[in-house]
Automatic annotation (TrEMBL):
The lineage of its organism: Eukaryota, Fungi, Fungi incertae sedis, Chytridiomycota, Chytridiomycota incertae sedis. Belongs to the PDK/BCKDK protein kinase family. Residues 1-20, 306-368 are annotated as: Disordered. Residues 1-11, 306-317 have a biased composition (Low complexity). Coiled coil: none annotated. The gene is PKP2. Its main location: mitochondrion. It is an enzyme of class 2 (transferase). InterPro entries: AK/P_DHK_N_sf, BCDHK/PDK_N, BCKD/PDK, HATPase_C_sf. This is Protein-serine/threonine kinase. It comes from Polyrhizophydium stewartii. Residues 48-206 form the Branched-chain alpha-ketoacid dehydrogenase kinase/Pyruvate dehydrogenase kinase N-terminal domain.
Amino acid sequence: MAAPARRAPQQPQQPQPQPRHLVSATASYANFYHNRVLEKYLKQDTKRVTLRQLTVFGRNLTEDKLLRSANYVRAELPVRLAHRIARFQQLPFVVGTNPHIELVYRMYWDAFETFRALPEITSLEQNRVFCDTVRSLLDTHLVVIPQLAMGIAESEPHLSQHAADKFMNETLRSRIGRRVLAEQHIALSADFEGSRPARDHWIGIVNSKCHARDTIDKCARLAGSIFRNIYGVEPPAITVDGFQDASFIYIPDHIEYILFELIKNSMRFTLEKHAPEIAARGVAAANAQPHYQTASEALASAAAAAAAPSLTPQPSARSSHRPRRELPLEDDDAADADHRRQPAHQAAASEHNPAPGQTLAPAPASAGAPASPLLPAIRITIGQSDTQIMFRISDQGGGIERQIFDHIWSYSHASKRRALAVAAPAHSMPRLAAKLNDPIPSTLHLGLGLPMSRVYANYWGGNISMYTMEGYGTDVYVSISVGNQSENLLDDYKGSGADVHGK
Ligand SMILES: Nc1ncnc2c1ncn2[C@@H]1O[C@H](COP(=O)(O)OP(=O)(O)OP(=O)(O)O)[C@@H](O)[C@H]1O
Ligand SMILES: [Mg+2]
């Protein structure tokens, strides 16, 4: 993307309505002075943090430590933003003129200017004002992911798929990094000021004992609740086996996003494969009445469903309009029905083979209950080693066709462009934190779930890989590094996983 100073003269255009804070940005970045300022920041390297540093620093907070944290964030964010702005300037000129890309570019300049104008923070009062500024920028930037995805998808004729995906991966990873620093400081400030309840093992936004099984249960409950609201039937059971007591230092928001997206995919495609009519009717009904539900609403309705005595959940506010249906099985599924009716934990236990000498948790239990006894269960296995925690999510959702599988990690492939184009006019651009509590319509599929999950996993040195058997099902492997891993900000990560398409 050309620097604003080099922008070619354009035909006069009708003024477009812009967010208020961007109006000044348009004019003010179009001069040489601003790129000189940018260069000054580009000469500075980013100071990457490790998860352990975040937790060690956040323990036994004092006022002095909190102010040091504030000044680190104040100094570090403009350096990181400068590196991002420079990458935008390297995009082909025509890509930089795409309105979605240009909007994000201006937002980054705006944030850069805001941070670099901030004086040193020397008191708690100044820190409170600083936290408010950071919070409001985090909020303003919630449109960044969908805007970027749309801009990159529309730029397909001018950017190779490889270049587009590399740009997106780096931009999103860098975005995660900036948000981690900002959110960690805001959370530490809240902890220090006593403005939020203390929680065992939490240091800011990091949980030093993130429990694998509990995380799966939470994501399964949430995905199950959304599934019920869309389709009006119970979701497939989730069985969990392996090292159920595994725990690790992590930012729960990150692993929850990943597991939630994978479970959501598995549930959706299991229904589409085994009861396609119900799946289609559910989507049509949900689209006719788009419904925005936050995670807390969905979890509340999941709790109500779990409290119900039978396998049929209490109808949620949304699904109560629609009659609850029995799942009619396809003919070729009937032979498997007995196996499916077997309680999920028994089915999983019979397949469960611990390695000699290893101690594993007892019989796995179904997560996210209640569940449909008629759909094949989704099986999640937790693995653990000295350096990694692993999750394998196995479903019988029919697998993935070759044409789709080859582009599942891409942001700019034609299938993603179509999804975004359909989504955007109907719902306008959603605001996306890429966290569990994004209030977006449940049937809006932007095609970002898998690539964004991999960006999250890569950020702390982990990876996601996928194995699919077309016509049968899919296995997804998520590995999480548990060493003293530092942020991985560039797209030079060589994950060990491979994606395999079997036919
Ligand atoms: N478990 C699965 N079984 C079958 N197909 C899958 C599975 N997971 C992903 N896919 C295929 O990969 C595509 C991309 O998945 P991804 O999660 O990135 O996007 P999406 O689910 O379409 O949209 P979003 O995640 O934004 O709601 C899906 O549309 C689907 O075709
Ligand atoms: Mg998805």
